[in-house]
Design brief:
The chain has a single domain, classed as Ferritin, core subunit, four-helix bundle (Ferritin, Up-down Bundle). The chain is built from 7 helices and no strands. The longest helix is centred in the first third of the chain and has 32 residues. The model has no long low-confidence stretch (mean pLDDT about 85). Bound molecules: fe (ii) ion (2 copies).
């Protein structure tokens, strides 16, 4: 039961990480065109880090024999999010993506803890911390900030 939940979770976050990586990359390109260079650079580095998360999770899953085949359906509503030419809309969207990633990783980490699966709990907790950092890296745009302590 726990293992099935874990596999389902891994499939979900693999899609989310890939979608986020693509979205960040597209948003970064758009904002470069609009002259928001500082924000564009930040979004580009996020795009690379989300892709790195994707690879880390793939590696974790394969090292633990959790995925025999990967069937990823990209969330096109994220990838094709229409308001890419509006910097504020982009910010709202990425903040929303980061918040839901933080919630997901926190929830799975706690579930793993309850099942005494410390390694898995710690693995997802580290990714959660990166997502909190991502959220806060964007705070210069509209001042929204999360306290790490509140999320732990
Ligand atoms: Fe991520
Ligand atoms: Fe992130």
């Amino acid at each position: 039961m726990y293992k099935e939940k874990l596999i389902g979770f891994i499939e979900k976050v693999l899609m989310d990480e890939l979608s986020a990586s693509i979205y960040y990359a597209k948003a970064s390109n758009e904002l470069t065109g609009l002259g928001s260079q500082e924000v564009a650079e930040e979004l580009k580095s996020h795009s690379e880090e989300e892709y790195e998360h994707f690879n880390q999770i793939m590696e974790f899953a394969s090292n633990h024999g959790l995925l025999t085949s990967v069937n990823i359906h990209l969330d096109m509503s994220v990838v094709n999010y229409p308001e890419l030419s509006n910097a504020n809309a982009v910010m709202r969207k990425v903040q929303e993506l980061e918040k839901s990633a933080i919630r997901d990783y926190k929830c799975m980490s706690m579930r793993a803890m309850l099942h005494k699966d410390i390694e898995t709990a710690m693995f997802f907790r580290e990714i959660m911390k990166d997502e909190i950092e991502h959220f806060n890296d964007l705070s210069f745009v509209n001042g929204d900030k999360l306290e790490v302590n509140n999320m732990e």
